[in-house]
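Retry 2 of 3 after timeout on previous attempt. Resubmitting structure tokens to design endpoint.
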């Protein structure tokens, strides 16, 4: 999408949000539609970034049907098993269990701010940006932040260990032409990662909707996201895709396979650990940061340590900015959060 068309779309989106938020049903579905594309577009660097980078020679519609099919299977399973809930019970956690019955303008428009940050190639936490405006307690936002920061630390440490301890085997593995079976392995791990990510982050999109969707509501939910995925693949990923493309060796199908596998295992651990939502963006940034540090230290890439630290600092700064924007939006639109925070700080 060219810049002029993008700005026109934003203007139209803010106008529509201004009309829709006054009507609960319209506000829910307009907010969901905005969130369904903006969340996937920004978070696509985590789950689909290496998949897109390493499969650019293949038809976009083939990638779309594969990823779209996994999406449909994953959310359909949750809808059947959890009585209409498509979030794998992430939204049953304390502070998020009640669907909104009315909306503030900024709650509906929040995904548009996420689109702006995505256009600026800033990986931000969609969990913080979209969920924080709906939390009914300040403690629930604190729990999400705590779980996300621990995810960053675990991902950073684990990736440093994997790409340091396994440096020599990995160097041998990445030499020469990749065996065709590596392509199968990469698609398999990409599908596994995408499914696990949906189990965590579908909550960010479904937060606008009833916690138990009817059959018609589920068809609308799944269909809108499915065709939104097609649009993103048709464009070759949003501009934020460059955050992945600049990292070392991600276009190699073997490197992409390992990144997918490590990331998926970390997300699966946190999914089993608790139902509380978390920012998978912080986990992904920690994973890539640890990998770049290990590869630079082992001299497996062409970067100096200063260049690597500058890249890591830039990514960490971006996700921190996203967190701050999310807190500001939450303070602006969420009366419960604002009141409890002021009381906690002794200002009320």
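Retry 2 succeeded. Sequence:
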């Amino acid at each position: 999408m060219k810049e002029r068309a993008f700005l026109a779309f934003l203007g139209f989106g803010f106008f529509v949000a201004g009309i829709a938020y006054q009507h609960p049903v319209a506000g829910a579905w307009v907010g969901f539609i905005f969130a369904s594309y903006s969340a996937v577009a920004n978070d696509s660097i985590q789950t689909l970034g290496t998949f897109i980078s390493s499969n650019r020679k293949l038809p976009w519609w083939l990638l779309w049907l594969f990823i779209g099919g996994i999406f449909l299977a994953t959310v359909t399973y949750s809808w059947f098993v959890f009585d209409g809930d498509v979030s794998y019970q992430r939204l049953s956690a304390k502070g998020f269990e009640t669907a909104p019955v009315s909306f503030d303008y900024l709650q509906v428009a929040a995904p548009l701010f996420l689109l702006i940050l995505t256009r600026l190639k800033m990986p931000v936490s969609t969990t913080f940006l979209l969920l924080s405006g709906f939390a009914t307690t300040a403690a629930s936002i604190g729990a999400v932040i705590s779980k996300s920061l621990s995810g960053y630390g675990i991902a950073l440490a684990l990736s440093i260990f994997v790409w340091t301890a396994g440096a020599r085997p990995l160097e041998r593995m990445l030499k020469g032409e990749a065996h065709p079976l590596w392509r199968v392995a990469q698609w398999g791990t990409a599908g596994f990662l995408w499914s696990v990510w949906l189990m965590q982050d579908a909550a960010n999109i479904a937060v606008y909707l009833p916690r138990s969707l009817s059959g018609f509501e589920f068809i609308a939910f799944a269909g809108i996201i499915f065709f939104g995925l097609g649009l993103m693949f048709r464009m070759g990923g949003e501009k934020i895709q460059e955050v992945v493309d600049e990292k070392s060796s991600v276009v190699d199908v073997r490197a992409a396979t390992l990144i997918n596998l490590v990331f998926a295992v970390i997300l699966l651990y946190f999914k089993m650990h608790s139902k509380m939502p978390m920012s998978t963006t912080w986990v992904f940034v920690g994973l890539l940061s640890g990998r770049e540090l290990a590869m630079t230290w082992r001299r497996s890439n062409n970067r100096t340590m200063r260049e690597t630290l500058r890249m890591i600092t830039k990514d960490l700064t971006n996700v921190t900015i996203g967190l701050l924007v999310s807190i500001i939006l939450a303070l602006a639109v969420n009366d419960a959060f604002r009141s409890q925070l002021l009381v906690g700080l002794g200002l009320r």
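Attempt log closed. The chain has a mean pLDDT of 82.
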